[in-house]
Amino acid sequence: MAILKTILNVLSVILTGVHFINELNTVGFVLSIMFIIGLAGIFRKSGVSPYWALVPCYRLFVLAKCADREAEGKALFFAELFYELDTLSGVFLNYDYIDQTSQILLSILSLTVFVILRIYNLRVFQGLDEVYGRKRRHIWIWLFFRGFAAISTGYSKKWQPSMKVEDLRAKSLAAISGGTVDPTDTGLSVNLEERTVSDFMHKKCLLRDIHLNIKPGHMVLLLGGSGSGKTTFLNAVNGYEKAKARVLLNGTDVYANYKKIKYDIGFVPQQNLIRGKDTVENTVNDASKMRLPLSVRKEDMIARENEVMEVFGLAQSRKSMVEKLSGGMLRRLSIAIEFVSNPSLFILDEPDSGLDGVMARELMVQLRKIADQGKIVIVITHTPDRVIDLFDDVIVLARDKDRVGRLAFYGPIDEARAFFDRQEMEKIVMAVNAKNVGGEGRADEFIEKYAKCGNAEVANG
Predict the structure, then answer these.
(1) Residues 100, 121 contacting (CB under 8 angstroms)
(2) Which of 172, 224, 194, 179 is nearest to 416 (CA)?
(3) Using 50, 70 and 90 to split pLDDT, how confident is the model at 248?
(4) What is the pTM of this model?
């Protein structure tokens, strides 16, 4: 009898999680097994491997995906994991050695996690009933007899899911272009297949199918709504976050030669990453020491520093402390320290953030002058229409129904207006934005239109 009980304990831990370890009476054990068997049936119906039902904690996340409640599933996973570990520690540890205050705190924490588990379980069960078309009152069966509820949902032919897990991800209607651009010896060539990250045990795609060439001397506007992947795209282009892509700058592979070419790329982020307890002159000098080759003579370095401070209107403030600068001057300094190395590619993420219209315009005029020197300048700005006359081309990124950033257009400003039938850049963004954020929800339409029309001539410059 003792051997049998030991075997049942082991099976309970493996199959149902340690919080069932104290429920080894016949009814409790059978209901736990029923729940796992029921989950296997639900997973099979929903297009998921039924074997996930055998994995404690993670099976609740999979169940949440079947219920189109992935966010709740993540919370459930961690809450269940804590609850299992807490229960396991209660089995193997003697709490008599823990002081009373710690015991009370642990009890409160355990109770909180228990409540979270019940609330999020309720949300997942409600979502599952919606997907399977079951009546609202069925939720009470889930709460008190979840083994029976799982079995009936998983194996009754009457209850079938309206969508499978892959359908719940709302597959995009937009076509993949399937093409690439021919790399050139001058300018920027980008052939990006995809940029992915690992998100809770599965791959999440952030960007896909972006191919374009940008000529030297062009100032390019990067447009897209929140979440469309603008900053991710810029990080992939400058080599900071590598994608499955081939990026060439003047014929040199950025990824393969990153240490060599990174000084030929200037990148100004949204935040000003400058220490305040120093002068403008010293700040620019420190930047030149880090970004210019060691072979540059001291007098040439000083000449370059003076030139950059003149270009960005910092010469008169060279002795000023950084912390005393106005917002506009601080942005100019952030740009100056990146431009000191005279990069071929200059990328700026909202350089006019926090500036008024006049100051923002002045800053963009300076960037236009930089592009006119034969540089490539790529800019993100939330107020594009007040400076659109300074740009040559526009890149429009849009989030498709897979929630992946895609290329909806790349080309001259006038062609963009004709393509979207919109005169203002901000209205173009509204056209591709999702309806739940006040847009028209036409992203897939324009992504597919651009992919199918084969803008090879535009993309190839």
Answers:
(1) no
(2) 224
(3) very high
(4) 0.70
- Please say whether the beta carbons of 225 and 439 come within 8 A: yes
Cβ atoms of 304 and 288 closer than 8 Å: yes
> What is the spatial distance between Cα 240 and Cα 148, in angstroms, rounded to a whole number?
52
The whole-angstrom separation of Cα 399 and Cα 227 is 7
| Nearest one of 267, 215, 273 to 241, comparing CA atoms | 267
3 has a pLDDT exceeding 60 = no
User: Residue 227 — pLDDT band, cuts 50, 70, 90?
Assistant: confident
b/e 319-349 (16+ beta carbons within 10 angstroms → b)? eeebeebeebbbbbbbbbbbbbbbbbbbbbb
Residue 407 has pLDDT above 50, yes or no: yes
**Domain range 188-459, CATH architecture:** 3-Layer(aba) Sandwich (3.40)
Give the phi and the psi of residue 440 in degrees, each rounded to 5. Answer: -90, -15
What's the rounded Cα separation, in Å, for the pair 294 and 302? 13
d(CA 342, CA 126): 59
Report strand pairing: 219-223 vs 244-249.
Answer: unpaired
Higher pLDDT, 169 or 393: 393
Domain boundaries, the chain: 2-168, 188-459
CA distance 312 to 268: 14
C-beta of residue 305 within 8 angstroms of C-beta of residue 339: no
Summarised one tens digit per residue, pLDDT across range 308-354 is 888 888 888 888 888 888 877 888 888 888 888 889 999 999 888 77
CA distance 183 to 459: 11
In DSSP terms, 189 is beta-bridged to 213, 248
